[in-house]
Amino acid sequence: QSAVNVPRDFEGCSTLRKYFGQLHYLQSRIPMGAEQEAAVPIAWTEIFSGKTVTHEDIKYEQACILYNLGALHSMLGAMDKRVSEECAAGAFTYLRDHFPHSYSVDMSHQILNLNINLMLGQAQECLLEKSMLDNRKSFLVARISAQVVDYYKEACRALENSETASLLGKIQKDWKKLVQMKIYYFAAVAHLHMGKQAEEQQKFGERVIYFQSALDKLNEAIKLAKGQPETVQEALRFTMDVIGGKYNSAKKDNDFIYHEAVPALDTLQSVKGAPLVKALPVHPTDPAVTGPDIFAKLVPMAAHEASSLYSEEKAKLLRDVMAKIEAKNEVLDQFMDSMQLDPETVDNLDKYSHIPPILMEKCAALSVRPDTVKNLVQSMQVLSGVFTDVEASLKEIRDLLEEDEVQERKLQELLGKVPPSQGSPPPPSPGLAEVSKECAKYMEVHEKASFTNTELHKAMNLHIGNLRLLSGPLEQVRAALPSPTLTEDDKQVLQNLKRILAKVQEMRDQRMSLEQQLREMIQKDDITTSLVTTDRSEMKKLFEEQLKKYDQIKVYLEQNLAAQENVLKALTDANVKYAAVRKGLAEVEHKWNTTVQTLVASYEAYEDLMKKSQEGKDFYTDLEGKAAKLLEKARAACQAAEANRQQVLEKEMKKQPPPRPTAPKPALQKKPLERDAAG
Fold it and tell me: Which N-terminal residues, if any, form the signal peptide (predicted)?
């Protein structure tokens, strides 16, 4: 009842702290939390909305008491002399960090942040005023003032939150305007003292820009101060007199005496705030604040305190162990990265025991088109047949023309041996001249197409074997793919490497498992019951005995970490021996990939080969028809030429007189014999 109707003085703060502490003692013994057995409805009125909010949770009572403690501290701070650096932010900070924000809107995270930064900002103002009265160094005063600005900027951000604006209503705008005015005002104070520091350091150009910036920020503060009390207006006028006087004097001195360049403000080092205020701490279990524990007979408070100390001992143990684990893990990760050894694919031998899916897909496609190879072979045969027919026809034409040329030459030679006759020999046959011309044209076309035909046949011969392979049994396809041939020594090297890699993984897994076990043990380790019955003087001994339960798992972890050096040394040696095997496996893998790609390419080339084969067949069929016609024409022309030669020969023979009989001469009888002998 006293805490609900608390007097607004420091006695009231003491009452709130005591009540808060006793609630803490109570809730540690009696299940009065949300949905617990002894929970009772607790009602408070929200400060801004006036609504009554009820929760069946003792923590809600604690949260409301803390809120009121912070509020009362802020009221007392506003009435106190401005000489203390302690502030009311402690209660709000503890409330924000240790309690849910869903109890009521005035305990939301944003509202609490607003309250905390408003309290810290005002406390920092007090410290700023004290430091100015104590004539502290200008740079320190500037940093203290800059921290005031930082606190108010955080408060302004909280005020700009839509949830905060909705909750505060009209006062949100007034508070925001006031906070913004303070931001500009204390930024002006910070730059005023930065200018004074520049003056002390005889940096007269910097002095001018700092004083000018201070003047600009003060003017912004004055604009935002409309409607503020006369005391605020008076303070602003006084500050304007100080800063304005400083600026005018500095500018005049620099213009007429020092002539230093005035740098841009953004080129100068920003002023970093110095947070020197402290929030009044909240210690729920401090007997000096809470008074005697009225529930001490239920559970001694010493047990709770000792339990906290024991928790810290456990945390220290965990930190020490984790530091060692993380150091070893970092070394292991770097080592494995440098080795580039993947335990899953270190030998890739399983890869060669089956056909890859892409080839299976091609084999399946050919299995439903069984005539693929047959069609391609037939197409090749037809093309070859037509090609051969064309070549035979053109050769026969060429032979006929050559034979005709030979016969014509013989006739001319014969005609040359007889006395010249009246007139000249008959001209060559026009038909043969035309045949010769057409034959030359067809031969040229044939030779050009022959190269393309040869390349097509090469491509067909290359792919048809692959297509026949893909159409055949899968076992043949698998056998056609390269596979590594390992000696017994190679297999031993591989087996050893895989065994050590498995050891590395086993070491990793065991380490993670032990770490998890340790964490779970620490999490579940609650000795509060033991602490209740243990004398305070025996607490240290009890801690030591209880912590011994972790010795065994610590030994296991130490052994695991110590084994790492030997395992990595063995892995290094195994990797050296594996180098040659690795190179061979890489080469086989390259050949395997190339073979797969070649077989896939053959499958994909089938349609193109069929198309080109058909085009070649059509071309040669057309050429074969033309060649056949030309052959008939050549035969007829040759026959005509031969008949013409016979007529010429008969005419010439008729013109010659019959030979006279003569007696044989010995010389004539010897000539043939001499020729034979010479032969």
Answer: none
Residue 278 parent element (H or E) = strand 278-279
Domain residue ranges in the chain: 1-107, 138-273, 320-417+428-488+583-652
Kindly report the length of the chain.
679
Query: What's the confidence (pLDDT) of residue 679?
Result: 36
**H or E element: which one contains 115?**
helix 109-133
CA gap 395, 628 in Å, rounded: 11
For 372-388, how does the pLDDT look when each residue is reduced to its tens digit (9 = 90+)? 666 666 666 666 666 67
Residue 67 · residue 28 · CB < 8 Å? no
How far apart (Å, rounded) are the C-alpha atoms in residues 401 and 394? 11
What are the Cα distances from residue 146, in Å, to 127, 152, 182, 235, 270?
12, 10, 11, 19, 10
CATH topology of domain 320-417+428-488+583-652: Butyryl-CoA Dehydrogenase, subunit A; domain 3 (1.20.140)
Written as one letter, the residue type at 111 is I
pLDDT (tens digit per residue) in 532-566: 556 677 788 889 999 999 999 999 999 999 999 99
- Report the 10 Å Cβ neighbour count for 573: 13
| Regions of the chain where pLDDT drops below 50 | 417-428, 667-679
How far apart CA 322 and CA 325 sit, in angstroms, is 5
pLDDT of residue 420: 44
What is the pLDDT, as a whole number, of residue 527? Answer: 80
624, 630, 635, 638 alpha-carbon torsion, rounded to 10°: -140
- Helix ranges, 351-487 (H): 357-367, 372-417, 430-471, 474-480
Using DSSP, state whether 347 is helix, strand or coil: coil
State how far the Cα of 276 lies from the Cα of 33, in Å rounded to an integer. 37
Topology match between the domains 138-273 and 320-417+428-488+583-652 = no
pLDDT of residue 371: 64
What is 138-273's CATH number, 1.10.260.40, 2.160.10.10, 1.10.3720.10, 1.25.40.280? 1.25.40.280
The pLDDT value recorded for residue 515 is: 94
Q: Which long-range contacts (CB under 8 A, 24 or more apart) does 445-454 make?
A: 445/623, 446/390, 446/391, 446/394, 446/623, 449/616, 449/619, 449/620, 449/623, 450/387, 452/616, 453/383, 453/387, 453/616, 453/620
Alpha-carbon span 307 to 547, nearest angstrom? 13
Alpha helices in 525-550 (DSSP H): 528-532, 539-547
**Structure tokens of 540?**
């240290």
d(CA 465, CA 44): 90
CA-wise closest residue to 295 among 529, 303, 42: 303
Q: Return the half-sphere exposure (C-beta side, CA atoms, 13 A cut-off) of residue 267.
A: 7
